[in-house]
Amino acid sequence: WYNVSMNATDPNKYYDPSATLTKEKAFILTKQPSLSSASAVSEEGTTTGGWGEDWIFGVTLTDDDINLEDYVNVSLWIDFGDGNGFTYVNSTLCTTTPCDVQFVEHIFRPEHMGTRQYNFTAVDRYGYYDDLTGTFTVERDDTEIYFVEGPSVIYREGNNIGLMKVLAYDT
């Protein structure tokens, strides 16, 4: 923040000089925040993963003029492919720089499958902003099926009935 002080004097000395008036915190010079290293990583460790997985969306914020009174809101937006454009998902306030932001989300459903976009937006308290957009792919969830017990043979002809037990895991 900068203070501004003003007074008036008459070079011809017809008038007495005025008192000096000071306006504290009159203005501030700021820069826009900067986002870098945006990522979307599934439990598989890549930008491709199942709809039932936890996903980590991360980004790094830098703001050269952040101070004790300052903050930057970093928000995550996702286009779920439903025709509504980007939808707000989560946000946090950063008060230091650099600020590494991570959101762990478990929000996808089968109808979200396909290549999708995410967007990080950073807005400081003065309205300056930056944003980054990336893509990721949601696919069918991975499952594993394990045989537990059951008959060794069930004939297809006739009314043969057999009870089988399996374990299904959402991996």
How do the helices and strands line up, and which of them pair or pack?
Blueprint: E1 2-6, E2 21-27, E3 34-41, E4 48-50, E5 55-62, E6 72-79, E7 86-94, E8 99-105, E9 114-124, E10 129-139, E11 143-149, E12 165-170
Parallel strand pairs: 4-10
Antiparallel strand pairs: 1-2, 3-5, 5-8, 6-7, 6-9, 9-10, 11-12
What does this structure look like?
The relative contact order is 0.19. The model has no long low-confidence stretch (mean pLDDT 89). The radius of gyration is 30 Å and the shape is rod-shaped. The chain is built from no helices and twelve strands. A five-stranded mixed β-sheet has the order 4-10-9-6-7, with no helix packed on it. It has a three-stranded antiparallel β-sheet with strand order 3-5-8, with no helix packed on it. A two-stranded antiparallel ribbon has the order 1-2. With 171 residues, the protein is mainly β.
